[in-house]
């Protein structure tokens, strides 16, 4: 087992929260340079895999796929290619067409799938791997999302987004030079997905008091540490330096591993993901081009910091929640809740961080209208039965801002 996975595993081993900590079945995580292709071939041979299917799109075939294929083939491993076609908007989507294409292009005697791409390609492969009961190896081509090492696959089924629990990769390899050459908005989106942990972690803490949600302090601490590591390497991430992209990808991987161990996405996904999901559903309904997941999450988290801080003002005004059961808990834990929201950075700071790495920092820059934002603020909390500050805001019926 590599030291990276070992340190996450050992952190959970000493956790006394009483929750089930699932074992990480990943064998290897290698973030390196040119040598990574050879290391990946050695790993695949060690596992006695002979037949692979490499799943990629047109861009990722060029950026890394060809090299992966050539190296595996020259090591005597058979590689067949499944190049996913883009939709009418030119996007690769994890929808029925792509899922069926991958399944059709995966021969019955395939030993392992290799995902070469960013988040969506991984979701397609995660599903195919789960359906076929064969493992997959992850090769991220951009530090764009925290889902590489988790098991949940957000899929688009009949135009609706559904997250299906599938499977995590058995190993992850990537070439830092490929990450450097990826479009800059992808790393900015990865940073946005990490910045979202600011509100998801606050939501998780509060959900303990408001909804008895299971809470693992180790999972929270590891996710927080990964977030803080990104914030302390902001300059490096903004410059897309080797150090910056390594820190960013490692942080995204850790966030994914925490979800894997806890078998839920609570540490990494709160109200900001619900807003992002709502916007995504709206774009799907309108058949409009999709926005990057992390770009939406970063902006949503930034907006929520000021909304959550306003909740403290309402607490001081002796407001009550509309649900009497929740109100009782709210009255009991007001102090801790106010402290949690009080510790959040302010919206301006969040926007500065997002702008620094070159991502959108406002809904205008993201391309979301004020009307859609208002609608999402009212309804996104109903997407999941999960306690968030967004739910609290709706139960408190905040007065319009002066
Ligand atoms: Zn996310
Ligand atoms: Zn724990």
UniProtKB/TrEMBL annotation:
Keywords: Cytoplasm, Lipid biosynthesis, Lipid metabolism, Metal-binding, NAD, NADP, Oxidoreductase, Phospholipid biosynthesis, Phospholipid metabolism. One of its GO terms (biological process) is phospholipid biosynthetic process. CDD domains: G1PDH. The lineage of its organism: Bacteria, Bacillati, Bacillota, Bacilli, Bacillales. Gene3D superfamilies: 3.40.50.1970, Dehydroquinate synthase-like - alpha domain. InterPro entries: G1PDH, Glycerol_DH. It comes from Fictibacillus solisalsi. GO terms for molecular function: metal ion binding; oxidoreductase activity, acting on CH-OH group of donors. This is Glycerol-1-phosphate dehydrogenase [NAD(P)+].
């Amino acid at each position: 087992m590599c030291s990276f996975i070992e340190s996450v595993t050992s952190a959970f081993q000493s956790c006394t929260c009483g929750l089930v900590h699932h074992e990480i079945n990943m064998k290897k995580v290698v973030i390196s340079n040119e040598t990574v292709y050879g290391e990946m071939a050695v790993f695949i041979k060690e596992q006695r895999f002979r037949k692979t299917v490499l799943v990629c799109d047109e861009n990722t075939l060029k950026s890394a796929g060809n090299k992966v294929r050539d190296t595996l083939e020259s090591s005597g491993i058979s590689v067949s290619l499944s190049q996913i076609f883009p939709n009418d908007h030119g996007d690769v989507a994890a929808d029925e067409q792509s899922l069926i294409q991958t399944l059709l292009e995966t021969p019955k005697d395939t030993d392992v799938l290799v995902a070469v791409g960013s988040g969506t390609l991984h979701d397609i492969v995660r599903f195919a791997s789960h359906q076929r009961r064969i493992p997959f190896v992850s090769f991220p081509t951009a530090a764009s999302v925290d889902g590489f090492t988790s098991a949940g696959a957000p899929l688009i089924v009949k135009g609706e987004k559904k997250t299906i629990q599938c499977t995590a990769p058995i190993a992850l390899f990537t070439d830092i030079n490929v990450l450097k050459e990826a479009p800059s908005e992808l790393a900015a989106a990865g940073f946005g997905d990490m910045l979202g942990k600011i509100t998801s972690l606050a939501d998780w803490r509060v959900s303990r008091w408001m909804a008895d949600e299971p809470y693992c302090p180790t999972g929270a601490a590891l996710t927080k540490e990964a977030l803080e590591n990104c914030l302390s390497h902001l300059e490096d991430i903004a410059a897309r330096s080797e150090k910056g992209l390594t820190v960013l990808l490692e942080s995204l991987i850790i966030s994914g591993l925490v979800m894997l161990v806890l078998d839920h996405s609570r540490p990494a996904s709160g109200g900001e993901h619900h807003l992002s999901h709502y916007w995504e559903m709206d774009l799907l309904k309108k058949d409009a081009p999709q926005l990057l997941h992390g770009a939406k999450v970063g902006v949503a988290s930034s907006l929520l910091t000021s909304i959550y801080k306003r909740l403290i003002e309402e607490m001081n005004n002796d407001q009550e929640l509309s649900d009497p059961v929740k109100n009782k808990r709210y009255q009991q834990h007001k102090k801790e809740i106010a402290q949690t929201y009080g510790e959040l950075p302010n919206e301006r700071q969040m926007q500065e961080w997002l702008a620094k790495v070159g991502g959108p920092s406002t809904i205008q820059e993201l391309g979301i209208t004020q009307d859609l934002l208002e609608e999402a603020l009212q309804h996104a909390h109903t997407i999941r039965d999960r306690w968030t500050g967004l739910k609290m805001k709706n139960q408190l019926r905040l007065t319009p801002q002066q």
